[in-house]
Design a protein that fits this description.
The complex is a heterodimer of chains A (313) and B (347).
Chain A (H helix, E strand, L loop, with lengths): L6 E12 L2 H11 L3 E5 L5 E2 L15 E5 L2 E10 L12 E8 L6 E5 L12 E6 L10 E6 L20 E12 L3 H11 L3 E5 L6 E2 L15 E5 L3 E9 L12 E8 L6 E5 L12 E5 L9 E4 L7 H4 L4
Antiparallel strand pairs in A: 1-10, 2-3, 2-4, 5-6, 5-8, 6-7, 8-9, 11-12, 11-13, 14-15, 14-17, 15-16, 17-18
Chain B lengths: L4 E8 L11 H16 L8 E5 L2 H4 L4 H5 L11 E4 L3 H13 L5 E8 L6 H4 L16 H14 L5 H12 L17 E3 L2 E2 L9 E9 H7 L4 E10 L13 H9 L9 E3 L5 H10 L7 E2 L14 H14 L5 E8 L5 E8 L4
Parallel strand pairs in B: 2-3, 2-4, 9-10, 9-11
Antiparallel strand pairs in B: 1-7, 1-8, 4-7, 5-6, 8-12, 11-12
The chains are: A mainly beta (313), B alpha/beta (347).
Chain lengths: 313, 347
């Protein structure tokens, strides 16, 4: 039994999100060091503000200012901050009801330790030095023992309101391919293409995924296929992919390896792109030290007959 | 058209900290075979198939389509998927059976948390404007709820520890940690290791059947007398975190308060959430709560809610319960809640 294959994978994406009018006012306000809420039909003030009343679903647009000071309604001590969280050192997560608001805002509280935090304690906003119109324009809250903070008295309307935010997201994973695909990948490193046969319908799947999608049973009998195969269909790629060192145009094809009941994908090389055709006979080309075929090239055999591969299209 | 629908079979995998030697479909397939074998049905006999899972857990796009290989989905079957806990897949299947479109349904759910960091993955389900940019992890949000309960005098740290200890004292052979588990250190105060669910990979499946078909397939079907799900307001700061009005409303709509239940399987991944649910569901001291150990004993993400329905149904199948409540939750701090009321035929 070979060792489990593993590889780190980072999934990372900058989400660009547009804002509604109330969200835009709130986040623009933070940029200008003003905290805004929204009034509901029954006279409550929601901070952070939303565009629709959470109880009645009524559209709400009546933006009002609240103070940058408030009261902790619940808290949790985070002794080991994680990536992306507001403070690098230990801090308290808090829900804060700002003075003038009826609901609470989630953020971080910079405090020396859990003994310095309690529900009901007074806090105020600590503004980030650089502000862009995002929830992180509030760097965090800090303990505060004064009166309710002053309102700026503004209208809630600002020059250059923000219309959107860019929210980077990143998650780190360790992939492992499972039993069937581990065996497939290991065999490829030995320059052999090994599929698995369904014990019920006898089809040979390449690459194997561990289950027969027709019968819903495990495929365990290993079957070496190829190395030769037949192009069942193909496309001509004219767009250069990022980080891919292949000249365009090139051909990407479905290839039915001899003995396989499922076509796999591969690039076709060693032939001008406009001469690739359905039925072309090909074989894999491994580069020095490569763990999988770099591409497939023509064998020079006569083309395969359509009837031989039409079920594999 | 109103038809009686029952859970007629339940199967689950072990829940393991890592299943890196198998793919998702390889983990799921034995559970599907197990649940079908309990009814004697084959894939081709199933009228509707519905699954619950989340691609974010393992970080693999469209992984649920690969999992379908384990069902035997070719030629095409009638099939659907929810990016939620499988309890909501069961809801969809229940609706489908009630319309008369199908007589049997296979419902399954699976989650592989081991490839990623589930505390961070779950931040991506939060409000993307005001909350997700702060990356508050799932334990942090549950800890805010726990502290609110402590401040309200509804519980304290020793009481929370007792919930964890009772849950893990289960004799459920599928539980992940078993026997005495120390309370451990704070993860995010006031929650300690013992207040948090174990992180594990696993899969769950049930079969539903309508009317006489249910009696053919199961000696004592677990009839679904009511099923409803409700959601709280989106913003945590708008909610009273010490209460769960959505659970109470779902329970009311499911008929849970019409007569007492003898057993309740609650999906409370964090100890303090059991306190909220017991109150919302008005569970008396004589109700057996989470004999399976609940989510504190095994918490395969996206499957632990469906497992609550399966565990409650299995007790009815075995004659250990006559009327049971099953609850499933989704999102932070019991954001969305589903309640099912199950009954066995009189003995």
């Amino acid at each position: 039994m070979s060792a489990v294959l593993k590889a780190p994978v980072t999934v990372e994406f900058p989400f660009t999100r547009s804002l509604g009018p109330v969200q835009s006012a709130f986040l623009t306000g933070l940029r200008e060091r003003v905290v805004l809420g929204v009034r509901t039909g029954d006279g409550r003030t929601l901070v952070p503000p939303v565009e629709y009343d959470p109880v009645t679903a009524e559209e709400i647009r009546d933006v009002v200012e609240v103070a940058p000071t408030g009261t902790v309604t619940t808290w949790a001590w985070n002794h080991a901050p994680r990536r992306g969280q507001p403070l690098a050192g230990p801090f308290a997560w808090v829900l804060v009801r700002l003075d003038g608001a009826d609901t609470a805002l989630l953020h971080a509280l910079d405090a020396p330790g859990p003994d310095a935090v309690h529900t009901g304690m007074r806090v105020r906003v600590r503004w980030a030095e650089e502000r862009t119109g995002a929830i992180t324009d509030i760097a965090c809250f800090e303990p505060y023992d004064g009166e309710a903070g002053q309102l700026t008295g503004g209208t809630g309307e600002f020059e250059n309101p923000v219309g959107g935010i860019v929210a980077p997201a990143r998650l780190d994973y360790t992939y492992s391919p499972g039993r069937a695909q581990t065996a497939y990948i290991n065999a490829l490193a030995d320059r052999r293409t090994v599929g698995e046969r369904c014990p019920s319908c006898r089809k040979v799947y390449v690459p194997p995924r561990g289950a027969c999608p027709t019968c819903g049973v495990a495929t365990e009998e290993r079957v070496e296929v190829g190395p030769g195969g037949t192009v069942t269909t193909f496309c001509i790629v004219n767009i250069k992919a990022k980080n891919l060192d292949i000249e365009v145009p090139y051909v990407y094809a479905h290839i039915a390896l001899d003995g396989a009941d499922l076509a796999l994908h591969g690039r076709i090389g060693g032939i001008p792109y406009d001469q690739v055709r359905m039925g072309l006979r090909v074989e894999p080309v491994w580069t020095e030290g490569g763990r999988y075929p770099d591409h497939y090239r023509p064998t020079g055999e006569p083309d395969g007959d359509y009837d031989m591969y039409k079920e594999l299209l | 058209m109103t038809r009686d629908i029952a859970v007629v079979a339940f199967a689950q995998s072990d829940t393991l900290r890592s299943t890196e030697e198998v793919s998702e479909v390889e983990m799921l397939m034995p559970v599907l075979h197990d649940v079908l074998a309990r009814t004697g049905l084959k894939t081709a006999d199933i009228g509707f198939t519905c699954s619950g899972s989340s691609d974010y857990l393992a970080g693999r796009a469209f992984s649920f389509t690969l999992a379908l290989d384990g069902v035997g989905a070719w030629p095409p079957i009638s099939e659907s998927h929810v990016e939620m806990d499988g309890a909501w897949a069961l809801y969809e299947a229940w609706v489908k059976l009630r319309t008369g479109d199908a007589d049997t349904a296979l419902v399954y759910a699976y989650g592989k948390s081991s490839p990623g960091s589930v505390r961070d993955v779950l931040t991506r389900q939060l409000d993307p404007y005001y909350v997700a940019p702060l990356w508050p992890d799932s334990v942090a949000l549950a800890a805010l709820q726990a502290q609110a309960l402590i401040d309200a005098g509804e519980t304290d740290e020793p009481a929370l520890a007792a919930i964890g200890a009772r849950s893990r004292a289960t004799d459920n052979p599928r539980a992940q940690p078993r026997g005495p588990v120390p309370r451990g250190d704070y993860v995010v105060r006031p929650l300690r290791t013992g207040d948090c669910p174990p992180i594990g990979d696993g899969a769950v499946a049930v079969v539903l059947a309508a009317g006489e078909r249910a009696r053919d397939l199961c000696g004592r079907p677990a009839w679904i007398r009511g099923l409803d799900h409700r959601i709280e307001a989106h913003s945590l700061g708008v909610r009273d975190l010490t209460d769960s009005p959505s659970t109470r409303l779902a329970a009311e709509r499911a008929g849970a308060f019409e007569r007492p239940v003898d057993t309740a399987e609650l999906h409370a991944p964090f100890s303090a959430q059991e306190v909220v649910l017991r109150r919302a569901l008005k569970l008396g001291g004589d109700v057996r709560v989470n004999p399976s150990g609940g989510a504190l004993a095994a918490n395969p993400m996206m499957a632990a809610g469906l497992a609550r329905i399966g565990e409650a149904a299995a007790r009815i199948h075995r004659g250990e319960s006559d009327r049971a409540l099953a609850h499933a939750t989704s999102g932070p701090c019991l954001q969305q809640n589903l309640v099912a009321v199950l009954e066995g035929d009189p003995r």
